[in-house]
Design brief:
14% strand; globular; 224 residues; 7 strands; Cathepsin B, Chain A
């Protein structure tokens, strides 16, 4: 069975079996026992190294499209492309600067198709999940893939605690830690609990939108 087909099946199984980000009675996920931490190095507070280590030189800063609206969706997707060496999406943010900003799943499909058509190359394999949860996200990281994910408030206090409409790059998610690279703050790493990630990404009951590029990333660093 081709590896891309296998991964799609595994992610589909995760979607079927995972618990919702917000319980059916409307109760939010459990409050974390510590506050989120912003660091300048890709290492968790307890020394855990980040799962997908994108060099700071490849972090991108969010910018605006032709109408001034932000390009966080396309910036985060290109950062994932940089990690996974998805060449058809190199320069995706620059392409979008000439077009209106803002993003949603149907627009992502349309713009990826348009950009690849302009370059005369095949579209890369990717998956969009509009009701994602931790099982889907963790499955992506078990196969070495970062996730572009919705982000509606900063658990570390950025944006003055205000609710925002944003997409960021998730480069770590296991049973203890999640780590966000916010394209409004490139070069930094926002570490939080998985429970806090769910609250951050689902906006208190909304849908978690995740984009996962299926090209395999680089091999992990060797360890004993």
């Amino acid at each position: 069975m081709p590896w891309k087909t296998l991964l799609l099946l595994l992610l589909a199984a995760a979607l079927i079996t995972e618990a919702p980000a917000v319980q059916s009675d409307g109760q939010e996920a459990v409050e974390p026992t510590w506050g989120a931490v912003v660091k300048t190095e890709p290492i968790a507070p307890d020394g855990t190294p980040i799962q997908c280590d994108l060099p700071k030189s490849l972090h991108q800063r969010n910018t605006g499209g032709s109408d001034g609206a932000g390009l966080c969706v396309f910036t985060s997707i290109e950062m994932a492309a940089s990690y996974g060496n998805v060449e058809p999406l190199f320069g995706f943010q620059a392409f979008m600067k000439k077009r209106p900003g803002g993003g949603y799943p149907q627009k992502v499909d349309k713009m990826i198709e348009a950009y690849c058509a302009e370059q005369k190359c095949a579209k890369p394999a990717y998956l969009q999940v509009e009701e994602a949860g931790l099982a889907t996200v963790k499955m992506a990281f078990r196969t070495g893939r970062p996730v572009s994910i919705t982000y509606c408030y900063s658990p570390s206090g950025r944006y003055g605690g205000a609710r925002i409409s944003h997409m960021v790059s998730l480069f770590h998610c296991d049973d203890k830690w999640a780590c966000v690279i916010d394209n409004n703050f490139p070069g930094t790493y926002e570490w939080m609990t998985p429970e806090e990630l769910l609250k951050t990404a689902n906006c208190g009951g909304g849908r978690i939108w995740a984009v996962i590029l299926l090209n395999p990333g680089p091999p992990p660093p060797p360890c004993n």
